Every structure is written in structure tokens, then in C-alpha cells.
């Protein structure tokens, strides 16, 4: 009965079978010669990736995560498992994006930017899903509203999002600075810009005094920590120059 009742169950049921099929193709591609799964994956990589990412965003916004009456526990529930599986499938599908730019009348630069755009779209989808997980967790354990019920105007939700997003930026910039991943570092800084905009336009206008203070102090301290431990990593050209000089 739950397969035809729109709540969280159809969102999960509607994605399990395609995920199984796609994962099977990815895993058994070297054994199934007649189907030519390599070509099949190239043809399906773009539309299937887009559909899966759209599903991730839509399902994250519309469901509470309480499947079949179970309590919602982050990561340890069928909905989040499906989100993770869908993200992994899209990640591997992006490796099968067509590389022959001449067949599409496009330049190599255009194809490269398109691949980076798809990777960015996957990252944004994952960020939205992660934010939805925070909203569902607060709804389950603290009684806060979901997106459709006014989460943007709830003090606890906004303070939690501000702190968690800033911590995510700290992790991204810290790892990027350590391993010289400049693009990832820029993603972390972009997330900080989003946090600052949220503080100015949402937290400052909606949050109560205590929640506002916690948001600003917490985010400010983490930003100071980022400036101390996560400086801008060197570019690939700078690294190459240093390696040549050391030789």
C-alpha cells in the first residue's frame, strides 16, 4: 500500500530499481560484451545524471524521512542511503561522459567546461541533500518545521545551518589547503560567502537576540580559524615552478 501513497516511500521506491540497474551496469560492464555497456553508459550518462540529481533535490525538499513510521536517524535510514547511492552512481556516470568533442561539433574546451559544470551540479545537489538532512534531523528530534512549514523562519534551524555550513567550509578549506586543492578551497570560500549573505539577509532579520548572537559569534570564530589554518593553496603552475627550482 505504501508504494502508491505519496510520502517518503514513493521517493525511495521510485529510485531503488534504477539504482540497482545502473550499479549493475557499472559493475558488470566488463562481463557483458554483447550489450556494449560502455557505449550504453556514454549515451545514458547525461540524462540519467540529470534525472538523479533532480530527484535528489526534489525528494530532499518534500520528504520528512520518516519511512514506514520509523524514526529518522541521519545516514541510518533508507532515504539517506538512497541519496548516497544516487550520488555515487552519478559520480561514476560522470566518468562516462562522451569525450569525442568532434562528434558533437564542440570544442575540447566546451566539453571540459561541461564536465566541470556537471561536477558542480552534483556538488550543489549533495549540498542541498545534506542541508535537507539537517532540517529532517531537527524536525525529528527538536520539533522544528520542515521546509514547507517555515524552516527559513525558525531560529534554531537558521542558527544550526549557519554553524554547520561554516564548519563545512572549514573542512573544505582545511583539506584543500593541506593538499593544494585550489578549486576545492574556492568552493569553501564560496560557501562562506553564502553564510555571510545568510547572516545579513536572513538571520539578522528573523532570528531572536540570543540565536542571532550565537550565529554571528559561532560563524565569526570559525572564519577566524579558517583564516589561520587554511590559507590559499598554491596553483599548479606555482607547484610546478617550485618543483623545478628544487631540482
| Separate helix tally | 8
Based on secondary structure, the structural category is mainly alpha
Number of domains: 2
Tell me the overall shape.
flat
Strand count: 0
Rg on CA atoms, Å: 21 Å
Transmembrane segments: 12-28, 40-58, 70-97, 118-136, 156-177, 184-204, 210-230
Protein name: DUF2339 domain-containing protein
Keywords: Membrane, Transmembrane, Transmembrane helix
Pfam families: DUF2339
Folded structure, characterized:
With 247 residues, the chain is mainly alpha-helical. It folds into 2 domains: 1-142, no CATH class; 154-235, no CATH class. Helix content is 72%, strand content 0%. It is built from 8 helices and no strands. Helix 1 packs parallel to helix 3, helix 2 runs parallel beside helix 4 (108-142) and helix 6 (182-206) packs antiparallel against helix 7. It is flat. It starts with 8 loop residues before the first helix and ends with a helix. The relative contact order is 0.08. The model is unreliable at 1-7 (pLDDT under 50). The chain crosses the membrane at residues 12-28, 40-58, 70-97, 118-136, 156-177, 184-204, 210-230. This is DUF2339 domain-containing protein. Pfam families: DUF2339.
Helix and strand arrangement:
Elements: H1 9-28, H2 37-62, H3 78-93, H4 108-142, H5 155-179, H6 182-206, H7 209-229, H8 236-246
